[in-house]
Design a protein that fits this description.
Blueprint lengths: L4 E10 L2 E11 L4 E5 L6 H9 L6 E6 L2 E2 L10 E4 L11 H11 L4 H14 L15 H14 L4 E5 L7 H18 L2 E6 L2 H7 L2 E6 L2 E6 L1 H6 L4 H6 L4 E11 L2 E6 L2 E5 L11 E6 L4 E3 L7 E11 L3 E8 L3 E8 L11 E6 L5 E4 L3
Helix pairs in contact: 2-4, 3-4
The structure holds adenosine-5'-triphosphate.
Adenosine-5'-triphosphate binds next to strand 2 and helix 1.
């Protein structure tokens, strides 16, 4: 039976390093929740606090209504999958999966039935009697997942499970994990520094930096309404143009920048006149040869990279500002480095974000 996971002002420090700093959050039953952030931001530490490997200095951890702070890891009914699989190399697939069932003192026929079922779920039935050291990385990670799932955990914890695998395998396993998670409805907390993984799989995610949550939301909310420049650049690619607010009213603003005045219709933070901002503009929102009267600029093409489905432009405006633009469905004609182009940006595509003054 899946549970909700509640973090209430959790702090975990190692000597003078505060790895997790007073975080609070509720992860709902059955949710696929991601912890996303750069290396060292505290993601794995927080996952280990939830698993029970670390005790928080302060704060309360609940599974549903039960306080878990003093419950040892093996009594929390969590299943865990690590980046390096952590399987016993000389044991067979079935023996690896059986381990947790033996600990739970289940009889042989029940264990066999559960192993068969979970192997089917991860599509590894025919590998049942193979030693795991004869399997590929992707196959081993399926077995690690099966071993975590077979105990029917209340919470499934995944720590960078796909990081050791190649890109094509990562892509297919992402879809499979998501599908299995939805089918089993186990509350799942997934740590990664790969934003594509998080965006493509998460119900919701927390963006972490320096031990705190900078933003929590659905992938769409976080991509479209980032709280600050850190989130805007960590989740997806973006360009920044710094400026000052000249005028502001009704979610519209006029912003003075080094490359001229920009009009925006995407103001969802509260700003005051004169405030410094950083405008985030996604590369796909910059149009070449635009003919709108607002936010039209002249740029010089620095590089063009044709990628089939898209064409990537590095553009320069004035002496200092570089922008990246993505053109979808590129035609037969292209621009050359050194050429001048007219670009335009829809007022809705320019998102002013607060920066420290
Ligand atoms: P990565 O993506 O690189 O795994 P992370 O976001 O998971 O990073 P953590 O491993 O949680 O980050 O580390 C957070 C901070 O706590 C880092 O500064 C790290 O050096 C420190 N830290 C983590 N574990 C320990 C430990 N056992 N002893 C001392 N410091 C630690």
């Amino acid at each position: 039976m899946s549970v909700s996971v509640e973090l209430n002002q959790i702090t975990k420090a190692f000597d003078t390093t505060i790895a997790v700093n007073n975080v609070s959050l509720t992860i709902e039953r059955g949710e696929l929740f991601f912890l996303l952030g750069p290396s060292g931001c505290g993601k794995s530490t927080l996952l280990r606090v939830i698993a029970g490997f670390y005790r928080p200095e302060t704060g309360l951890l609940h599974f549903d209504d039960e306080v878990m702070n003093n419950v040892p890891p093996h009594q929390r009914n969590t299943g865990m999958v690590f980046q390096n699989y952590a399987l016993w190399p000389h044991m067979t697939v079935a023996e690896n999966i059986d381990y947790g069932l033996v600990l739970r003192k289940l009889d042989k026929s029940t264990r066999k039935a559960k192993i068969d079922k979970v192997l089917e779920m991860v599509q590894m039935s025919e590998f049942r009697d193979r030693p795991v050291n004869t399997l590929s990385g992707g196959q081993q990670q399926r077995i690690a997942l099966a071993r975590a799932l077979v105990i029917e955990p209340s919470v499934l914890l995944l720590d960078e499970p796909l990081s050791n695998l190649d890109a094509a395998l990562r892509q297919s396993l992402r879809n499979e994990i998501k599908e299995i998670q939805k089918r089993t409805n186990i509350t799942t907390i997934y740590v990664t520094h790969d934003q594509i993984e998080a965006i493509s799989m998460a119900d919701r995610m927390a963006i972490m930096k320096d031990g705190v949550f900078v933003q929590v939301g659905t992938p769409r909310e976080i991509y479209q309404f980032p709280v600050d420049p850190f989130v805007a650049s960590f989740v997806g690619e973006t360009n920044f143009i710094n400026g000052n607010i000249l005028e502001i009213a009704n979610e519209k603003a006029t912003i003075e920048t080094s490359i001229g005045v920009l009009q925006t219709e995407s103001v969802y933070h509260s700003f005051t006149q004169g405030q410094k901002v950083s405008c985030s503009i996604r590369p796909e929102m910059i149009h070449l040869n635009g003919n709108t009267s607002t936010n039209s600029l002249t740029a010089k093409v620095e590089t063009v990279t044709y990628l089939g489905r898209v064409e990537e432009y590095e553009l320069k405006i004035g002496d200092d500002l570089k922008l990246k633009a993505l053109i979808y469905e590129p035609g037969t004609e292209t621009k050359q480095p050194g050429e001048t182009v007219d670009i335009s940006m829809d007022p809705k595509a320019i998102v002013p974000l607060p920066i420290d003054n």
